[in-house]
Structure formats: structure tokens, C-alpha cells
From TrEMBL:
It comes from the Bacteria. PANTHER family: HTH-TYPE TRANSCRIPTIONAL REGULATOR, HTH-TYPE TRANSCRIPTIONAL REGULATOR GLTR. InterPro entries: LysR_HTH_N (IPR000847), LysR_subst-bd (IPR005119), WH-like_DNA-bd_sf (IPR036388), WH_DNA-bd_sf (IPR036390). Residues 1-58 form the HTH lysR-type domain. Pfam families: HTH_1, LysR_substrate. GO terms for molecular function: DNA-binding transcription factor activity; transcription cis-regulatory region binding. Keywords: DNA-binding, Transcription, Transcription regulation. Belongs to the LysR transcriptional regulatory family. PROSITE patterns: HTH_LYSR (PS50931). This is HTH lysR-type domain-containing protein.
Length: 291
């Protein structure tokens, strides 16, 4: 049994296709098929059912997949342990949300720039669903998202922290100091919101629908930093993660509204694919994100 056979096996499972896996790994399809045939002969079992263009794991294939993941993970750990422990030079491609990028990333990036100037960091922002898909296709080293908890046997989750989502406005808004507000009382005010179907916006919309309430925002934009700037200049309301507005609240530029009937949380989560070799650069980013 060879490591390359395990890598090929896992890649076929990931891509759900022999031809796509062959293209991704740089093999001819016939060479890839031979690798799997030899692996099946050594294991004395069939790993895949191939009916037409459909590829599916057999029962033994599903059982072997967990072993393959564990073996590749241990091989990657061995490689890391033998690598230079001090110098970080490999590029790092991270997928995240705009709200996290503005609020959580600056101190991390500043630390990398100061301590590991040879590391090139590329950041891609998208929705949680898009980022997960990119991670599954190995376009990203790791993803840092804010959403409901996500789980998969294909991923390693290395962080999960609860983050409060709050209603926020400018401190001189006439309703800013009111206590025990109800969501329905806020709807007569202008709202600046993230785009429809964004994670915490979706949670708010679901609550409103359950109460037979309708909210039509005057501004919808994905850029949370722009929303925060607009809130400082207008008597409007938004619904944003507390970490995104904390600095503005502490500086007296914004105020959190006391809303009695709706409280919700999202979870900051960091994942990388189980087949991904966790580099020292990834480990350092994870360590800094947790602090």
C-alpha cells in the first residue's frame, strides 16, 4: 500500500469522480484506475461502485475512508515535525467573511507582518456556503466563518466561539436610550442591513416572518464597515455582530439597543479539510485567532 494510493482514493471521494480526480492530481484516468485496482486487490475488497458515470463508496469503502484520513494526517504530522521549526515562509490562503476580515484580522495580520515577513497571506471573502465549497475543492487552506454551527467528517474544526448579534444605532437617535424595546417598535425606523440571506440577516428575517412582521431596509450592502460608517451619520438601526461594532460602542460613536424579545448568536468557526496538510503557517494563524 502506497501513500499516493491513499491520496488518490481520498481525492476520488472528494471529487466524486475518477476523471476529475485524475485531472486534479495530474494523472491519466487509466493510471488512476490502476492505482485503485491495486489498492482494492491488496485490501481484498471493493472500495467503489462504478455505475455509468456515478461513483459511490461501498460499505467497506466508507469504513476504509476513516483509516485513510487518519494515515494521511499522521504522515503530514511527521512531515511537519521534521520541518524547520522556526522559519515560516509558506503562503497562506484564508477564506472569511467581510465582517470578520475588518474586525478580527488586523491584529493577526500585523503580527504576521512583524514576525513572519516572508509569509504571503491571501484573503478571499465570500458567504459561508461559498467558502465551504472552496475549502472542499482545496482552493483555500482554511476558512474562518460566522454562522450556525457546521460539522462534517471531511473537516477539522479547530475553533468555535459564540458571538452575540446586536441591534445598534447612533447614540443621539431619539430611541437610543429606551429600555426593553420590542422588534416591532423598531420597524418604523430606517434600517441599514447586510444583504438578504446573509447568515445573521437570515436569522432576523426568520424571526420577523414568524411574527408576521415585514422589514424593508433603506440600505442593503455586504460591507459591514460601510454600514457602521453610515450609522455614525444617520438615525438608523442595523443588526450586526457585537465584535464588529464594539470599538465604535466603546468610543461612544454607536449604542447597542436594549431589545427585549429577540436575542441571537452566531458562532465563529475555523475549519480546514481533513486531507489538508496543516502547515506551521496555518497553526500560527489558528493560535492567534484563538487568543
Amino acid at each position: 500500500m502506497e501513500i499516493r494510493q491513499l491520496i488518490t482514493f481520498v481525492k476520488i471521494v472528494q471529487m466524486k469522480s475518477f476523471s476529475k480526480a485524475a485531472a486534479d492530481l495530474g494523472y491519466s484516468q487509466s493510471a488512476l484506475t490502476v492505482q485503485i485496482r491495486l489498492l482494492e486487490q491488496e485490501l481484498n475488497t471493493r472500495l467503489f461502485d462504478r455505475i455509468g458515470k456515478q461513483v459511490a463508496l461501498t460499505g467497506h469503502g466508507k469504513q476504509f475512508l476513516s483509516y485513510a484520513h487518519n494515515i494521511l494526517q499522521e504522515v503530514n504530522k511527521a512531515k511537519l515535525s521534521l520541518a524547520n521549526e522556526e522559519k515560516l515562509v509558506n503562503p497562506l490562503h484564508i477564506g472569511t467573511l467581510e465582517s470578520l476580515c475588518f474586525s478580527k484580522f488586523p491584529p493577526i495580520l500585523k503580527y504576521f507582518q512583524k514576525n513572519y515577513p516572508d509569509v504571503t497571506i491571501l484573503i478571499t471573502t465570500a458567504s459561508p456556503e461559498e467558502l465551504i465549497e472552496m475549502m472542499e475543492k482545496n482552493y483555500l487552506d482554511l476558512i474562518y466563518i460566522l454562522d450556525d454551527p457546521h460539522y462534517s467528517n471531511n473537516w477539522n474544526k479547530v475553533m468555535e466561539t459564540r458571538e452575540e448579534i446586536v441591534f445598534v444605532t447612533s447614540p443621539d437617535a431619539p430611541f437610543a436610550s429606551n429600555r426593553q424595546l420590542l422588534v416591532k417598535d423598531l420597524l418604523k425606523e430606517p434600517f441599514f442591513l447586510t444583504e438578504k440571506n446573509a447568515n445573521y440577516r437570515r436569522t432576523l428575517d426568520q424571526f420577523l416572518a414568524a411574527q408576521n412582521l415585514i422589514l424593508t431596509p433603506v440600505l442593503e450592502v455586504s460591507n459591514t464597515e460601510f454600514i457602521i460608517q453610515m450609522l455614525r451619520q444617520a438615525h438608523a438601526i442595523s443588526f450586526l455582530p457585537y465584535f464588529a461594532v464594539r470599538q465604535s460602542v466603546e468610543q461612544g460613536e454607536l449604542r447597542i439597543l436594549d431589545v427585549a424579545d429577540f436575542h441571537t448568536y452566531m458562532y465563529g468557526q475555523i475549519f480546514y479539510h481533513k486531507d489538508k496538510w496543516k502547515t506551521k503557517e496555518m497553526e500560527e494563524f489558528i493560535r492567534l485567532a484563538k487568543t
